[in-house]
Design brief:
The protein has about 290 residues and is of the alpha/beta class. It has a single domain (about 1-280), classed as Ribokinase (UDP-N-acetylmuramoyl-L-alanine:D-glutamate ligase, 3-Layer(aba) Sandwich), CATH 3.40.1190.20. The protein contains 9 helices and 13 strands. The chain has helices at about 40-50, 65-75, 115-120, 140-150, 165-170, 180-190, 235-250, 255-265, 280-285; strands at about 1-5, 10-15, 30-35, 55-60, 80-85, 90-95, 100-105, 130-135, 155, 175-180, 200-205, 210-215, 220. The strands form 2 sheets. Strands 5-4-1-8-9-10-11-12-13 form a 9-stranded mixed sheet, with helices on both faces. Strand 10, helix 6 (about 180-190) and strand 11 (about 200-205) form a beta-alpha-beta unit. Helix 1 crosses helix 7 (about 235-250), helix 5 (about 165-170) crosses helix 6 (about 180-190) and helix 7 runs antiparallel to helix 8. It is globular. The mean pLDDT is about 95. Pathway: Carbohydrate metabolism; D-ribose degradation; D-ribose 5-phosphate from beta-D-ribopyranose: step 2/2. It catalyses: D-ribose + ATP = D-ribose 5-phosphate + ADP + H(+). This is Ribokinase.
Length: about 290
């Protein structure tokens, strides 16, 4: 089967800083690195490295050829990524000595995906394929509706979080993943807790505590592995990509989540985003305390 990802593609400019800047503070960075990023690209690379066939639906600007080349190198099908006039999206990311971060996003070409492009891509999808989206592109509702009508397993990673964006796609979802704060925000906005949602699979990520999986409302906990984190950027995307790949390969959800926990634990020990996501061999061979 195939994972179809309507997803963002960014240049991630990562600044290593002694602490996260306060309002009005000018802060000298220790280092600057440029990585392939965007929640969409991260998830595509993670799912591909976990052994899934991934087709990415997105857009880059005239400055984005390098991003296409890297996605292709990492095993992602880039035939459905359009070249547009808007500049490629980018993110300015500050990472402190504890591995915590803050991020400024410029959407750019990620909001220039056309309906024709989306339709042409999904016309090649087969019933049983997975479709995943995040809140960094346009056409999320259209894609969710189309995927539902085509019999795809429709998945949504609710970040960056906007309650109205999540509520708009809820009727079409088979799988929802969000973090603990986002789950609280969704409940405040909609009056529904995650156990009230009529969605078969819901995962609430709990950061260093792990993840909680709800199957038709029934919870199961998956503790995180203990590691020394140096950079949490992209860890959630890595987790999601690995879970989706496990679903695509027919794994029981418990096994898919456990494998995704291992991948995310490895990811936080590395500086960077898509370019440093671990592959399946690394995940299987990793030793944890």
């Amino acid at each position: 089967m195939t994972i179809w990802n309507l997803g963002s593609i960014n240049a991630d400019m990562i600044y290593d800083v002694p602490h996260l800047p306060a309002p009005g503070e000018t802060l000298a960075a220790n280092r600057l690195d440029r990585f392939l990023g965007g929640k969409g690209a991260n998830m595509s690379v993670a799912a591909a490295r976990a052994g899934a066939r991934v087709a990415h639906i997105g857009a880059v600007g005239p400055d984005g050829r390098w991003a296409l080349e890297r996605l292709t190198e990492y095993g992602v099908d880039t035939r459905y990524i359009a070249g547009v006039q808007e500049p490629t999206g980018h993110a300015i990311i500050a990472v402190d000595t504890k591995g915590e971060n803050n991020i400024i996003l410029f959407p750019g070409s990620n909001h220039a995906i056309s309906r024709d492009q989306l339709g042409q891509a999904l016309s090649s999808a087969s019933q049983g394929d997975l479709l995943v989206m995040q809140n960094e592109t346009n056409l999320q509702v259209e894609a969710a509706r189309m995927g539902h009508e085509l019999g795809l397993t429709v998945c949504y990673a609710a970040a960056p979080f906007q309650a109205d964006a999540v509520e708009a796609v809820l009727p079409y979802l088979d799988f929802l993943i969000l973090n603990e704060i986002e789950a609280e925000q969704l409940q405040q906005a909609s009056g529904q807790s995650v156990t009230d949602l009529e969605i078969e699979h819901v995962i609430v990520t709990l950061g260093s505590k792990g993840a909680r999986y709800y199957h038709r409302g029934a919870p199961s906990d998956f503790p995180a592995l203990k590691v020394e984190a140096v950079d949490t950027t992209g860890a959630g995307d890595t987790f999601t990509g690995y879970v989706l790949a496990g679903m695509d390969r027919g794994m029981p959800m418990a096994q898919a989540i456990s494998q995704a926990n291992r991948a995310a634990a490895l990811m936080v020990t590395r500086h960077g985003t898509a370019d440093v996501i671990p592959d399946l061999k690394e995940v299987h061979e990793a030793q944890f305390d």
